[in-house]
Amino acid sequence: KGPSAFIPLGEILQEGAENSRHQLLIEAFVSAGRVDNITMVMGLHPQYLSSFWKTQYLLLRMDGPLPYHKRHYIAIMAAARHQCSYLVGLHMGEFLQVGGNPAWLQGLHCAPQKLRNLNEINKLLAHRPWLITKEHIEALLKTGESSWSLAELVQALVLLTHYHSLASFVFGCGINPEEDQDGGHGCWPPSPHSDSSPASDDSMGSSGGKDAMQEVEVLMERMKLLQESQLEEEGVTQEEMATRFELEKTESLLVTPADIADHSLQSNVLCFVEDPEFGYKDFTRRGEQAPPTFRAQ
User: Any idea where the domains of the chain sit in the sequence?
Assistant: First the structure.
């Protein structure tokens, strides 16, 4: 219950909260007419919330080369890449409020080609940013009907990385759906549909929980096999073992019990994602020559 699935409501709403935080929450209500759950949780660190607000206000509201509705659409693209339905739902509403075309919300295929051209770099920034090269930038800046100006592209890339990071905050803090959202735009990442998951519904009965438990048992068995193989192999580092475990865990979680799919996630989030199978992959391994990393000071 409350803004976060992990932090007790009493801790967030504790009496005698410092004046700076209280003032920030009042400002949020006055400016937006509401205090969303991200603000409630981040308000536990008032100085951080203040900096976050200033940054987000500059990105979304202040003068810039991109029109407001396109900024929100880029936020949707970034959040959808991590399947963060909370942020996708939030910015779908913002997109419509600033005059965005409702047809674009049917999916990425309905957006202008110029926005669709961001898909590749959005995908790489979200999961494997070390693969980005100057050619990706050049392809977007090349002259043509759907080309980007340098100023537009800089703002678009900052928006993408901002919302990739914010999706991690939403997941990490267990941000709950807003009460006034239809059924809630949950923050829940793809995972086994346990009975407590928003992806569950009454039609599932108790089979969803049982299937999830079976998956856990299978996962534990795989972990056991991995530990045994570690004893047999020489020179396997803890980092490599952790990577193998994460790979096994990811593969396990991608199996939806009893073919039950979260329909709302499919329709509201995945429609903004092309190549959904593309994800994180280690860019360097022991004994292999590491690829050059793309650095900026």
Answer: 1-62, 67-181+263-280
In Å, how far are 5, 93, 105, 172, 248 from 188, measured between CA atoms? 10, 19, 20, 10, 20
Q: What is the pLDDT of residues 180-236, one digit of tens each?
A: 654 444 444 444 333 333 333 343 344 445 555 666 667 667 766 766 666 556 566
d(CA 291, CA 270): 31
Query: Cβ atoms within 10 A of the Cβ of 223, count?
Result: 15
Give the per-residue pLDDT at 157.
96
Torsion of CA 168, 43, 14, 180, to 10 degrees: -70
Structure tokens at 259: 């073919």
State if pTM tops 0.70. no
Q: What is the mean pLDDT of residues 142-153?
A: 90
DSSP 117-155: TTHHHHHHHHH-GGG--HHHHHHHHSSSTT---HHHHHH
Cβ atoms of 83 and 127 closer than 8 Å: no
pLDDT digits 0-9 by tens, 162-177: 999 999 999 999 999 8
> Is 84 in the active site?
yes
What's the chain's Rg over C-alpha atoms? 21
3-class secondary structure, 175: strand
Q: Percentage of the chain with pLDDT > 70?
A: 62
Alpha-carbon span 105 to 185, nearest angstrom: 15
Distance CA 30, CA 88 (A): 24
Q: For the domain 67-181+263-280, what is the CATH code?
A: 1.20.1290
Can you tell me the distance from the alpha carbon of 148 to that of 74, in angstroms, rounded to the nearest whole number? 14
Structure tokens at 145: 């009907």
What average pLDDT is seen over the chain?
77
Phi and psi, residue 256, nearest 5°:
-85, 125
